[in-house]
Amino acid sequence: MSSNSIKLLAGNSHPELAEVISKRLGIPLSKVGVYQYSNKETSVTIGESIRDEDVYIIQTGTGEQEINDFLMELLIMIHACKTASVRRVTAVIPNFPYARQDKKDKSRAPITAKLIANLLQTAGCDHVITMDLHASQIQGFFHIPVDNLYAEPSVLNYIKTKTDLANAILVSPDAGGAKRVASLADKLDLNFALIHKERQKANEVSKMVLVGDVTGKSCLLIDDMADTCGTLVKATNTLMDHGAKEVIAIVSHGIFSGAARERLKNSRLSRIVCTNTVPVDLDLDILDQIDISPTLAEAIRRLHNGESVSYLFTHAPL
Amino acid sequence: MGDIVILGGNSHPELVKMICDNLGVHPSRVQLGKFSNGETSISVSESVREKDVYVIQSGCGHVNDSFMELLILISACKTASASRVTAVMPYFCYSRQPDIPYTAKGAPLISKVKESGAINGKEAQSPLNSTLMTHRPGEDSRFKSLDTAIRATANTMDQHRSHSGTNLKNVASFSRIPMIPGGKEAGSARADAGELFNSQNAGYKLWVAQAGTLIANLLTTAGADHVITMDLHDPQFQGFFDIPVDNLYCQPIAQNYIQHCIPNYKEAVVVSPDAGGAKRATAIADSLKLSFALIHKERRSQLLKGPPTTTGLPMASKPLVTTFNSAEMHPSSSNSKYVQTTMLVGDVRNKVCILVDDLVDTSYTITRAAKLLKDQGATKVYAIVTHGIFSGDALSRISQSCIDKLIVSNSVPQQETIEYLGKENVDILDVSRVFAEAIRRIHNGESISMLFEHGW
After folding, report:
1. Are residue A146 and residue A156 in the same domain, yes or no?
2. What is any one GO biological process for this UniProt entry (chain B) (predicted)?
């Protein structure tokens, strides 16, 4: 009696995203109860039969207090699905947690991203869908297929429709993001500039050097994530000091932790744009969001039907 | 102890220090913290290359945070070429979860409405919400309740809805399993639950995912080579691991306490508060040659055994075990049910009773048992507990209960317990020496069997 159809399960991290994906696919979210006991252990109840189905669990990495709770939720949900005899479990993790701890940059530093990859596989995950991994090498930490989707097509659409393209210049706030920005610049046929920064400690930025001319231009500052926004704000100041007309920041993952809200509020940014891979609770006028749920929904549909997802790397579904 | 390294997690620094004092070594320096986005950050400051590493982390406090911290510490030591990494978990988290998802009077519940603290607090006071399960709805207001609305009583329901409405935008509540209402709630809530159990879930029995195997596998995946823990709720849990697990016992220490600190202990009765703990209690009773009594209780709700009848959901129609103060709220029926479903096997009249349990979380079981013992004529009730989690409002329940003295081990921090209940009402059993000796023996490759029998 198995239909092997798509079952969408949502954790507690981002119910809004799960809902838009489910609307987009026309498949209701399956009944799950993800609760916390008073002793703070996580409890998962699956509310309907998922035997022999193709299960997608939507859970993103977010929350200054709850990120580990959401991670455990995801692991326990995957495990629960496995013990409930599903055919395949796919973890849909729009923002991969611990992605920045991906190398042993000093003695005895943990490679937590690798640990998370192992934990997901141990729990029984068969496939991972994620978006704009901080380092695409993280895909190599897995022994299971990982589809690293790009927000770039959606970002391209946004830039084309909602910014002053004729007078724009793309800016990368650090050397690491140069490749990402260069790719966008090629597709938009725009110039690009680079800011070189010297980082002394995590979450802290010191000196900034601008490479390129931004005088009188509308600068599009592109990055993969905005966390405490220290980099963004300093880069904005550097650009404005060099005569930029305005600065618009476009990031994939808007984590906005710590003092981000205050920093952005007092910054000289004219707009901050992020996608909805993580829930944003910022309440600022300059905030704009790009909806990437069509890409995730289409990836789920294609994965289920065994079609190629390469199309999504270059095109945003309408 | 040349090549031994002791690392302590954030959950229980005092125990780490005591274990290290017993071993005569210093805990290694390790920086534990969080990045601004909430991700756990650790950094081990001393070399662990080719060392025998012991990571001490109890499963308490913010459980998922401390567990992730443990996993990250283990994996950091492994990637830093430690020769062996042992996870020392005095209290093993996720070792006990109820297998019944819902009872008529509540269930594990996540509650994320930010301002709902007051409401939840009020509910916590209400005997209506006392749950049959040992775990009860989380009152951690950081967690959003997608179904508090259904659980809440009629007037709080509206408040919740308005909170959820403003804070959470369009929450996908339709995908959530609504709670079975906890008593005389609004008719609509009852209808919701009835609908769920009758129509939408016909032929499907709700079940709760058991995380035990997963936790065991996660520890192994992170790189643990050995696990030391104490009084596992299910001894079978050891079998979930493919690595050696040393399950230490608190029993010798508890026996020692009974012999030395309970006056005239030979006349006392050892009581198990539920059938599951009978084995543990009889072991103590046998070795001290004391008499033994057992409290049997019916934990199950009838709801899951069959479809609700037309009068189905209200609590009064079911033989529920209620808390002792429920008489105020339900003078008639509940009290009679109480006697029906909780039975004492054995005689405790004019005796001193020693309640023995491995784990006290919400404290419903143990306070209820104490009340029953006093009702049956016990003169004094001691409660000896290995792991005192005391979540939610457990401490206030204990302080109001018939328990005359609480004896609890320091497998999880008990500072708050002492402050809340007062020094004279609580005695702490020190387990650090057992753990230190186990670590010493494991490090030296000696047998630890004698720790199972003798106090240390």
Report:
1. no
2. 5-phosphoribose 1-diphosphate biosynthetic process
The strands making up A42-46's β-sheet, listed across from edge to edge, are: A32-36, A42-46, B207-208
One domain, residues A22 and A92: yes
- Domain count within chain A: 2
Supply the DSSP string of B181-217, one letter for each residue.
P-SS--HHHHHHHHHIIIIITTT---EEPP-HHHHHH
A108 and A205 both lie in a single domain: no
pLDDT digits (tens, 9 = 90+) for B293-347: 999 866 544 444 444 333 333 333 333 333 333 333 343 343 333 334 678 999 9
Q: What is the dihedral of CA B236, B240, B242, B246, to 10 degrees?
A: -40
Identify the band that residue A204 occupies on the pLDDT scale cut at 50, 70 and 90: low
pLDDT, tens digit, for every residue of A2-53?
678 999 999 999 999 999 999 999 999 998 988 888 888 998 988 889 999 9
Which of A16, A34, A39 should one mutate to test binding to chain B, selecting the residue with the greatest count of B CBs within 10 A?
A: A39
Instruction: Say yes or no: A26 and A62 in one domain.
Output: yes
pLDDT score of B135 more than 70: no
Please, which residues have CB within 8 angstroms of residue B378's CB and are 6 or more apart in sequence?
Answer: B269, B348, B349, B350, B351, B352, B353
For B4-94+210-248+433-451, CATH number out of 3.40.140.10, 3.30.470.30, 3.40.50.2020, 3.10.129.10 equals 3.40.50.2020
Residue B234's pLDDT is 86
B420 reaches A (C-beta below 8 A): no
A85 part of contact set with chain B, CB < 8 Å: no
Per-residue pLDDT tens digits for A209-256: 899 999 999 999 999 999 999 889 999 999 999 999 999 999 999 999
Average pLDDT for residues A96-124, to the nearest whole number?
95
| Domain boundaries, position A138 | 6-150+293-314
Q: Does A113 touch chain B (CB under 8 A)?
A: no
Q: Sketch the domain layout of chain B as residue ranges.
A: 4-94+210-248+433-451, 114-200, 251-429
Residue B1's identity, in one-letter code, is: M
Confidence of residue B101 (pLDDT cuts 50, 70, 90): very low
Spell out the CATH class of B251-429: alpha beta
Q: Does B202 touch chain A (CB under 8 A)?
A: no
Contact with chain A for residue B418, Cβ under 8 A:
no
Q: Say how many CA atoms lie within 13 Å of B64 toward its Cβ.
A: 23
CB contact under 8 A, B109 and A35: yes
B301-to-A44, A280, B59, B137 alpha-carbon distances in Å: 19, 41, 29, 16
Distance from CA of A60 to the nearest CA of B (A): 13
Under a CB-based contact definition with an 8 Å cutoff, are residues A93 and A59 in contact? yes
Set of chain B residues whose Cβ sits within 8 Å of the Cβ of A69: 64-65, 143
- ipTM metric: 0.93
Per DSSP, B402 falls in state S
DSSP secondary structure, B404-432, as one string: SEEEEETTS--HHHHHHH-GGGEEEE--H
